[in-house]
Write a structure and sequence with these properties.
This protein is of the alpha/beta class. The protein has one domain: Alpha-Beta Complex (2-enoyl-CoA Hydratase, Chain A, domain 1), CATH 3.90.226. 34% of the residues lie in helices and 14% in strands. Strands 1-2-3-5-7-10 form a six-stranded mixed beta sheet, with helices on both faces. It has a four-stranded mixed beta sheet with strand order 4-6-8-9. Strand 2, helix 1 and strand 3 form a beta-alpha-beta unit. Helix 4 crosses helix 5. The longest helix has 16 residues. It starts with 40 loop residues before the first strand and ends in an 18-residue tail after the last helix.
Length: 293
Amino acid sequence: MNGEISGFSGVSGCSRSPGDAVTGAQPPRPPDGDWLGTPYLRFERHGSIAHVTVDRPQARNALTGAMYFGIRYAIDHVNADPDLAGLIITGVDDVFIPGGDLGADQVDDWGGPRHLGMDNVPFDAVRFSPKPVVSAINGICQGGGLLIAIFSDVAVASDRATFRAPELYRGIADTGYAQYLPAQIGPARAKDMLFTGRKVTAAEAEAWGLIARTVPHDQLMSEATEALAAAVRCAPQARAQVKRVISTSYGFYDRMSMAESLAGPEALEGFLAFKGRRQPSWVPADLQSEGRL
């Protein structure tokens, strides 16, 4: 798969790689302690700071349902552990998080969360986490990854990172992005991202206020760690009270309309077009081109 990945805020259209198999002979099992319920998320402790690394390069870091739930679980796990003060979320290689994997055969399904269950995705967990969450955006960031970045307490991006919101090209009326992006970067830039599917560079994303900081790629983790350490030094109750007020600025999305869209014919055609490496049928004939949107 090339560097352009489709992302939905709950789904992405990245299909399962033929070589994508759960390592070892053990069957999938639910989260327990530092085990996040999937071999494609790594939970590490670095003193009082936890790291979650999305590590599924064979599928370009596309999130299964278990991975989405695992990130949510990790945030709750950090908040419940007195030895941990905050969390950094990052990815491997040139991809941060592109969104979800629509492959029907979920390779790490332990029988828990439904893939598209909106109660199982981690966005509200990031948004309302009492302990600070920092995104270390190492590469391609879209779909669910972009929402995680928006809701992080600090989003630090590599100068190689790119950002995109192609949901409308996939037939998804993403009312979450419609609500949150204008609050983050203003209506004009939000419409530009949503209606054109344009790729935004790290420098543009910082200038727009989509993320907080851009740093040279090899300084990403050190900068993210410094940002999280600074946030941890704040008085925790006072920090949480300020975060609660800031979080209200995003408002709340129209969940019912988005659920209807996800189950509708345009979303189905968008998925089939992506899977078939073609453009959706709603694109006028004279504007059709080769490959995916």
